[in-house]
Request: fold
Amino acid sequence: MVNKITVVGAGNVGATTAQRIAEKELARTVVMVDVMEGIPEGKGLDQWQSAPIEGFDARVIGTNGYEEAHDSDIVVITAGIARKPGMSRDDLLNTNAGIVKQVSEQIKSTSPHAILIVVSNPLDVMCYVAMKVTGFPRQRILGMAGVLDTARYRAFLAEALDVSVRDIQAMVLGGHGDTMVPLISYTSVSGIPITQLMTQAKLNAIVERTRGGGAEIVKHLKTGSAYYAPSSAAVQMCESIVLDQKRILPCAAWLEGEYGMSGLFLGVPCKLGRSGLEKIIEVELTREERDALAKSADAVREPMGAVKL
Ligand code: APR
Reply:
């Protein structure tokens, strides 16, 4: 375990993330920071009081300031507004950019050595805002999107094939939006290529459902967006870092020539260990996958150029 993990935003994603981190005892202290008066304090107390039942020794604290968050090892940023039906992630752009900017300034001054995991949307652009404001190296800024998109894809595949979710290996790359790129050539069931088990038409339908996976949930919830799977995904990234597992997970990372691209955050396979992003793995892509990744990068560059800092 590390000494301290802070989760900024004590809303649906943030509070669920904090609880999962505490239950896994990834940090001695878990701090939740939110601007809403009373909410982080109340949720923090409530979570901590589940400790004797769940059997964890992490101390959860909720607060409105950054004093308790001082010198965090990892900071997960979930602050911002969530989507309502009919909204795209890009509709959140300027509101959340202002929030992530303010949060990043605080983190820079109170936890200058922290590894940041950004969850706020539009994800790839919010990672860019956090990097611009903090000036942290790319090893210490990661975006959570690919683990979630891949989990949705794996869940849909497991259901369609009537097999365990555990046996589905897959990877979704690209931006966290409609242009995300599920890699069919790297999708397998216990090593069996997916194309041997499913028709192309069925696979295409699952890829489309994955692309709209977030919107499907927003449509049901009406008042907000998904948080159980997003928090699981953020915590899996934390776990790989805290325990130095060196897992290879699809995360948004700052590209410096990888996949022939530079100067943007995009979902790519990343090795996560104690120092954060330890390596970007470059895999061979089919021509269609390469074209789709380039298109996805364009879809990230557009709001990135429009964001006001
Ligand atoms: N500092 C700290 N917390 C803030 C700030 C700020 N400057 N501004 C807003 N918040 C808090 C809100 O008070 C709220 O409690 O962020 C929290 C957001 O919680 P929810 O509205 O429940 O939204 P949630 O579903 O958690 O989504 C948060 O994650 O998945 C993304 O698209 C989603 O951008 C959204 C973010």
